[in-house]
Automatic annotation (TrEMBL), chain A:
PANTHER family: RESPONSE REGULATORY DOMAIN-CONTAINING PROTEIN (PTHR44591:SF3), STRESS RESPONSE REGULATOR PROTEIN 1 (PTHR44591)
Protein name stated in the entry: Response regulator
Positions carrying 4-aspartylphosphate: 52
InterPro entries, alphabetized: Bact_response_regulator, CheY-like_superfamily, Sig_transdc_resp-reg_receiver
The keyword Protein transport appears for this protein: no
Cited Pfam families: Response_reg (PF00072)
Length: 122, 283
């Protein structure tokens, strides 16, 4: 089963997206902070990581950087799901190796799921 | 400020020299006048520094607040998406209607927050662009497909005309889409029942020119100078339209200016408006 890890500190956002993705047949695990998220990623080696940027304990930029430095996690695709939107932030995460970047407030849940499906098909 | 001070010193010296005999008094007058100019200058400069700082803090506040607002708004949006998804539960007509109202209101709030963020960026001169090649023709067609159902509900038709083959544009496509959407939204919103909105695309030298024409309420003559100001809403619209923040045209102008294009309009009250903008052609 395709594994996805969602690192998101906002409980409602975490629950809604996890519920929908599970209904779509994915094996989804979630973490509320950057440290727990990184541990989970290293342990599970998922097919896709959904990552928020503003997170407690360790921000998403650092999680992504550490993932890319680790041989075992460096190739896992990462979709950034955030509400930050400055060009500086976008460029920084793309430089750090994020695969794509979405502003949560601007997308319906259905659109996010479609994008995740497309990413996993590649 | 230095030039003003020097000018004052010289001016005071010359006047005092011609009207006062004693050199000590002349020197005293020059010193007093220079001192006054220094004090006044200090207050003026401090005022400007204070204003600039207040403006920066205001923009920063809007920016931080907007980011913070987006998170709960996204939570509401996604929860509503789940509640309205009939694969999860069946809804009766009343429930559907109320959820639809909540969704529309939530999306309006997100749009407002996004607009405030853009305004804050424009004011700080930080509307960063990620330019690239894109088809303005395709963008207009996509937008028309998206807006047509809303326009149809209001009894407004949408048309599109391309003058010959047009090359690709060179700009930040997302930003251009926002500017275009703001113009088309306005044209639809301020059209009367049975109105027609026409979008025209053509080449204009080294630029693409897009025109959005409507036969709606138009803009009163005495308010034309304020159209691209923040929070502008014309008197004839304010009377019956409660929706709208008056930020759309300010943002559209901010975007087009930052892209090196031009934006303008012509309008007659009760007859309609013609808004247009240009963006560079891809080389």
């Amino acid at each position: 089963m395709t594994k996805i890890i969602f690192v998101e500190d906002e409980p409602t956002l975490q629950k809604t997206l996890c519920d929908v993705l599970r209904k779509e047949g994915y094996d989804v695990k979630a973490a509320f902070d950057g440290v727990a998220g990184l541990e989970l990623i290293k342990l599970e080696k998922p097919d896709l990581v959904l990552l928020d940027l503003i997170l407690p304990k360790m921000d998403g930029f650092t999680v992504l950087k550490k993932m890319r430095e680790d041989e075992e996690t460096k190739d896992i695709p990462v979709m950034i799901l955030t509400n930050l939107e400055g060009t500086f932030d976008v460029e920084r995460v793309l430089e750090l190796g994020a695969t794509t970047y979405l502003v949560k407030a601007n997308y319906e849940l259905r659109e996010v799921v479609e994008k995740i499906k497309k990413m996993l098909e590649k | 400020m230095g030039v003003v001070t020097l000018g004052t010193m010289l001016g005071t010296y010359l006047i005092a020299y011609f009207f006062v005999d004693q050199p000590e008094i002349v020197a005293l007058i020059v010193i007093i006048a220079t001192g006054i100019i220094f004090i006044v200058g200090h207050f003026i400069i401090s005022g400007f520094v204070y204003l600039a700082e207040a403006n920066r803090m205001k923009s920063e506040f809007v920016s931080i607040t907007s980011h913070q607002l987006r998170t709960p708004l996204s939570a509401v949006k996604w929860s509503l998406n789940l509640l309205m998804d009939e694969r999860w539960q069946k809804l009766d007509q009343k429930q559907k209607e109320y959820f639809e109202i909540m969704k529309t209101s939530n999306n309006r709030m997100i749009r407002l927050v996004n607009d405030l963020l853009d305004v804050s960026r424009i004011e700080q001169g930080r509307l960063d662009m990620r330019p690239g090649k894109f088809s303005l023709d395709d963008m207009i067609r996509d937008l028309i497909a998206e807006i047509t159902p809303i326009a149809r509900d209001g009894g407004v038709s949408l048309g599109f005309e391309v003058e010959g083959g047009v090359p690709e544009g060179w700009a930040d496509a997302e930003r251009v889409r926002l500017a275009l959407q703001n113009l088309v939204d306005n044209a639809v919103k301020y059209s009367n029942d049975g109105g027609a909105v026409k979008i025209k695309l053509g080449r204009f030298g080294n630029f693409l020119k897009c025109e959005v024409h409507d036969n709606g309420v138009g803009i009163p003559e005495h308010q034309k100078a304020d159209v691209f100001q923040k929070f502008f809403r014309s008197d004839n619209v304010r009377k019956y339209q409660t929706e709208g923040t008056g930020l759309g045209l300010f943002i559209a102008k901010g975007i087009v200016d930052a892209l090196g294009g031009k934006i303008g309009f012509s309008s007659k009250e009760n007859q309609g408006s013609d808004f247009w903008f240009t963006i560079p052609i891809a080389k």
